[in-house]
Task: inverse folding
C-alpha cells in the first residue's frame, strides 16, 4: 500500500490507532522538535545546569549521557516545566517546542505536559487498577468513557502489554512486575498522544530482560515521537540513540555543561572531546 | 557461648519495659470496662437494659409513681452534637489541610500551621466560657434561649477543627510524592489531582482523623455542659436546648445515690460502647478502602 494513501485512510477512520508502530507511514501524530538555548537551572544558590544549547530533532532518539549530578534530569524537567515543582528552582535561557515558547509565563503548562510526556526512573503507577491508571489523565482531559476504553486497549497493545493484562484490567497495577509497570507508565503517557516523550533512566530500575523489552519499545516508538532519554548505560545509548549529548560537571561549580553533541556513531567512535572519549570507553566518570 | 547468652539476656531485658507498658495500657481498658460494668450492675439488673432506652424521661429520683431511667433523649443529644460537630469540622478541616499543603504561600504556611497547633491546645473550658458568654447570647438574640444544640455543635466543631486539620494535613502529606509528580507530568489539572489522586490515597488517614475526633466530640463534657442548656428532651430544631450523656454524668454525679448512681455508670457504659462502635466502623471503612485499592 502506498504510504500516503494509508495515511489518509487512517485519518478518516473512526477508531484511529493512537500510535503507528505497526505501520510507521500511518503515523498521524506530528513529533515536535525541541530546542534549548543557553539554558541554566538553579536550585536556590546551587547551579545544576550551565548554559546548555542543543536541539532534539523531531522523530529521533536523543540520549543524554554523563556521570551523575551533571544536570541531565534537570534539563529533562525543563522541557515539560516539571522543574518548577521544586519551589526554589529558577531557570534562565530559552526552550522551544517547534515555534512554541515553553518558558513563556503565558504558556498553558497543562497542555504542554500533555504534549511532552515523561517516564520516570522508578515506575510510578497509581495504586489503582491497570485500566484506571490509563483513564485517569484522560478523565482530566474530558474524554468520554467509551473512547477511554478504546484508548486503553490501543495503548496497551502499543506497549505490548495487552495480551499479558487483558484479563485483569481491573486488578491493581501494583500487582504487575516492575517491567510491566514501566510499560504501563509508558502506555499511560502515550494515551495523551504526546509529541515528545522524556525518559529519565527508564530501564535502570529493571532487570535485564524487562529492560530489554522497554528498550525494544523505545526503538519502536522512534519516528512517531521525539524521544529524549537519559541513560547511564553506554551500550544502551549506542543501541537506541540517533543523537547523543554528553554532559559533564563544570570545574567551577556552575553545574553540568554539555561538552559534546553529535550523531551516535561519532560520539562513540570518533569523539572530539577527550572527556567524552574517556567516558564512553569507561575510563572516567 | 556465654557471651551470646549474655547478649540474649540484654535484649530480653530491653524488651521487658516495652512489654510492661503495652500490657498496662491494655489492662487499663479492661479494668475501666470491668469497673463500669460492676458499678452499673444494680441498674442493669434491677431496672434492665431495655428500660434505659424505653423509659420516656430521665427522672431517677422520682418517688411518686416510680423513677424513670430513659436515656434515649440524652443519647440522641450526644449523637447530634458530636455528629453535627464532625460534619462541620471534617470539610473545613480538610480544606485547611489542603490549603496548608498546596495553596498557602511559603511564607504563610509555617506560621499558619503554628496558629492551628495553638488553637488545638486551647483548653475546652475556655471554649465553653467563650461560648457561654459570646456565642449563646448571640444565638439567643435570633432564637431564644440561645443555649442550644446549635451552640454545642459550633463550639465542639471549633474545638475539634484544628486537630482534624492537622491530621488531615498529615494524611495528605503521606501520599507518595511520586503520585503527585506522575499526575502533574500527565498534565492533570490541580482539581483532578486533588480529587482523583490525592484524596483517595489520603482516605485511610482522613477516616482515622474523623473517627478519632468524633470520639473526642462524644466524650467532651465541659464545653458542651456550658452551652447546650442541659434540658432533657428530643430537640425539635437546632435552636432547642439538649442534654448530652456526658453533661448528665457531670451534673448529677455529685448527689446521685444507689440506683441513680448505677444508672449514671450505665450511661458511661453506653458512651464507651458508642466509641467502640465508632472505632469498629472506622476500621472497616479503612479495610474496605485498602481492599479496593490494593
Result:
Amino acid at each position: 500500500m502506498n504510504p500516503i494513501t494509508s495515511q489518509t485512510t487512517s485519518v478518516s477512520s473512526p477508531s484511529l490507532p493512537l500510535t503507528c508502530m505497526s505501520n510507521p507511514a500511518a503515523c498521524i501524530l506530528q513529533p515536535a522538535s525541541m530546542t534549548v538555548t543557553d539554558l541554566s537551572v538553579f536550585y536556590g544558590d546551587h547551579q545544576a545546569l550551565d548554559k546548555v544549547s542543543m536541539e532534539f530533532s523531531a522523530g529521533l532518539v536523543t540520549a543524554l549521557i554523563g556521570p551523575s549530578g551533571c544536570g541531565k534530569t534537570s534539563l529533562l524537567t525543563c522541557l515539560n516545566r516539571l522543574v518548577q515543582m521544586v519551589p526554589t528552582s529558577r531557570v534562565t535561557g530559552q526552550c522551544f517546542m517547534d515555534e512554541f515558547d515553553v518558558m513563556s509565563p503565558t504558556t498553558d503548562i497543562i497542555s504542554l505536559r500533555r504534549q511532552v510526556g515523561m517516564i520516570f526512573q522508578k515506575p510510578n503507577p497509581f495504586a489503582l487498577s491497570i485500566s484506571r491508571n490509563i483513564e485517569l489523565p484522560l478523565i482530566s482531559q474530558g474524554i468520554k468513557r467509551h473512547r477511554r476504553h478504546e484508548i486503553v486497549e490501543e495503548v496497551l497493545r502499543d506497549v505490548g502489554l495487552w495480551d499479558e493484562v487483558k484479563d485483569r484490567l481491573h486488578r491493581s497495577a501494583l500487582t504487575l512486575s516492575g517491567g510491566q509497570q514501566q510499560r504501563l507508565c509508558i502506555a499511560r503517557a502515550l494515551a495523551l498522544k504526546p509529541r515528545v516523550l522524556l525518559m529519565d533512566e527508564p530501564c535502570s530500575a529493571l532487570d535485564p530482560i524487562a529492560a530489554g523489552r522497554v528498550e525494544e519499545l523505545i526503538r519502536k516508538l522512534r519516528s512517531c515521537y521525539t524521544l529524549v532519554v537519559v541513560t547511564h548505560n553506554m551500550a544502551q545509548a549506542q543501541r537506541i540513540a540517533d543523537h547523543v549529548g554528553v554532559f559533564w560537571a563544570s570545574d567551577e561549580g556552575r553545574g553540568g555543561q554539555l561538552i559534546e553533541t553529535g550523531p551516535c556513531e561519532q560520539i562513540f567512535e570518533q569523539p572530539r572531546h577527550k572527556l567524552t572519549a574517556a567516558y564512553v570507553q569507561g575510563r572516567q566518570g | 557461648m556465654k557471651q551470646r547468652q549474655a547478649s540474649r539476656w540484654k535484649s530480653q531485658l530491653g524488651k521487658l519495659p516495652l512489654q510492661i507498658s503495652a500490657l498496662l495500657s491494655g489492662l487499663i481498658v479492661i479494668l475501666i470496662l470491668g469497673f463500669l460494668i460492676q458499678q452499673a450492675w444494680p441498674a442493669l439488673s434491677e431496672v434492665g437494659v431495655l428500660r434505659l432506652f424505653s423509659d420516656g424521661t430521665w427522672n431517677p429520683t422520682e418517688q411518686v409513681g416510680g423513677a424513670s431511667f430513659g436515656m434515649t433523649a440524652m443519647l440522641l443529644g450526644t449523637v447530634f452534637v458530636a455528629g453535627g460537630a464532625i460534619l462541620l469540622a471534617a470539610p473545613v478541616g480538610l480544606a485547611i489541610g489542603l490549603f496548608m499543603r498546596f495553596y498557602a504561600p511559603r511564607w504563610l504556611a509555617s506560621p499558619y500551621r503554628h496558629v492551628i497547633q495553638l488553637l488545638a491546645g486551647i483548653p475546652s473550658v475556655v471554649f465553653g466560657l467563650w461560648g457561654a458568654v459570646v456565642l449563646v447570647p448571640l444565638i439567643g438574640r435570633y432564637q431564644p434561649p440561645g443555649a442550644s444544640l446549635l451552640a454545642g455543635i459550633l463550639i465542639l466543631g471549633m474545638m475539634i477543627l484544628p486537630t482534624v486539620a492537622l491530621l488531615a494535613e498529615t494524611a495528605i502529606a503521606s501520599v507518595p510524592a511520586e503520585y503527585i509528580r506522575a499526575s502533574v507530568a500527565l498534565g492533570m489539572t490541580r482539581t483532578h489531582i486533588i480529587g482523583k489522586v490525592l484524596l483517595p490515597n489520603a482516605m485511610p488517614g482522613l477516616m482515622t482523623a474523623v473517627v478519632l475526633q468524633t470520639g473526642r466530640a462524644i466524650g467532651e463534657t465541659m464545653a458542651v455542659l456550658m452551652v447546650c442548656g442541659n434540658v432533657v428532651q428530643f430537640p425539635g430544631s437546632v435552636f432547642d436546648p439538649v442534654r448530652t450523656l456526658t453533661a448528665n454524668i457531670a451534673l448529677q454525679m455529685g448527689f446521685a445515690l444507689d440506683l441513680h448512681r448505677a444508672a449514671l455508670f450505665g450511661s458511661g457504659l453506653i458512651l464507651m460502647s458508642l466509641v467502640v462502635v465508632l472505632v469498629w466502623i472506622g476500621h472497616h471503612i479503612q479495610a474496605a478502602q485498602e481492599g479496593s485499592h490494593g
